[in-house]
Each structure stands twice: as structure tokens, then as C-alpha cells.
Amino acid sequence: MLGLRSCLTRVLAARTLAPQMCSSFATGPRQYDGTFYEFRTYCLKPSKMNEYMEKIKKNIHLRTAHSELVGFWSVEFGGRMNKVFHIWKYDNFAHRTEVRKALAKDREWQEQFLIPSLALIDKQEFEIAYLVPWSKLEKPPKEGVYELATFQMKPGGPALWGEPFKRAVNAHVNRGYSKLVGVFHTEYGTLNRVHVLWWNESADSRAAGRHESHEDPRVVAAVRESVNYLVSQQNMLLIPASFSPLK
Q: Quick one: how many helices (H) and strands (E) in the chain?
């Protein structure tokens, strides 16, 4: 009887400890909010950029009737030319599924924009991303330009590089070199990728802030710590469209 009781004690103890053992494999803070953001990048055919922008400006209201547009930009510098970038917000995956079904049945959207515009597009890329737990989506005080800085981090998730990366971002924010709009971590697409969306009054003010930050010892120290976990980085300067909610 004593032996059976001892055996049961060991089994129950193992069950109690199991969740704690599994938690050591977590890659960072869990995403409890279902809200996510879809990042869309369209590479347009040469000479078709203006035509596409005219069509989307005329018909964007048909698309935003179904879900929320966060921002729509053309890429001025960084990477391939003739490129547009836009962000859409969804409450959860079921919400996105409903929106896609509704768009497929929306004849006005299909006939006036989608079908005619397909011939203008050369390549499409999609990503699903969440705001990181310590960031929220901020609206800039006035019109300006945006910078999307994309960081490919080492495998391991935020548990590995989250805190150093946060310190590097906050070092720029706290010193006022640029205004942070949001920090996003990919869920679908290339994993271990972080997108940081910044706002500046102009490309020149962005350049001035960047030069100053390079001479700030607090920023330099924070960035040096975070680059230990960095694989690659790409920056794009974005110009908001006239119909973009984020100006």
C-alpha cells in the first residue's frame, strides 16, 4: 500500500511539472489579442504605376467597405521600383475569411477594379503580422513620410532577441530621432522577421535624425547589442497615397 501511494505521488508530481517543463520552449510572450495585420506588397509592371494608382484611388472605397485599411504607400527608395505597400487590419482569421468571401461576391469591386488591375501587377507578396506586445499602432501628428525597416532575426523568436531589439527601438524613440508608428512580428511569411514602421516630417528630417542617432552613445550601445541577433536588414522610404488613412 505504501509502495502504491509512493508511485501515485510520483505520477501526479510529473503531471504537475509537465507544463512548467514545456514552457521552457516558448519563443516569447503569447499573442492573446486576435487582431492581426496583413502586409501586402505589389510590384507593378514598368510604366503601369500611374495607371494602377489612378484605378485604386478611384475604387478604394469599394475595398474599404469590407475591412479597415491602415495605410497605403508607394515605395520611393529601397528595393525594387514601381512598388506599392499596404496594410489591412482584421479582428481575427474568421473575420478575414468573411471579408475575402464578400469581396469575391462583390461584382462592383471585381469588375471595376480587381479584374482590370490584374494585368498591371507583376508580383504580389503577402505577410500576416501581429503587433509585438510592447507596441501599439500610433497615428502621426501630421502628414509626412514613412520608413519601413525590416529586420530578419536569428531563429529563436522574441525569447532570444526580443528584449535587446526593444531596447534598440526605444533608444531611438526616447531620444526623439523618429516617431514610432508600430512594431510588427510575422506570423505567416518569412518567420523571425520584424517590421518597424517609422514616421518623419520629410526624407531630410529622417536623414538628419539618423545622422544624430549614429553619434548618440546610448543609441549606439543599444543597437550594437541587438545586432548580435540580426541576420539582415532592409529599409524602404514610403510616400502615403492621398487616400491612405496614415498620411
A: 8, 8
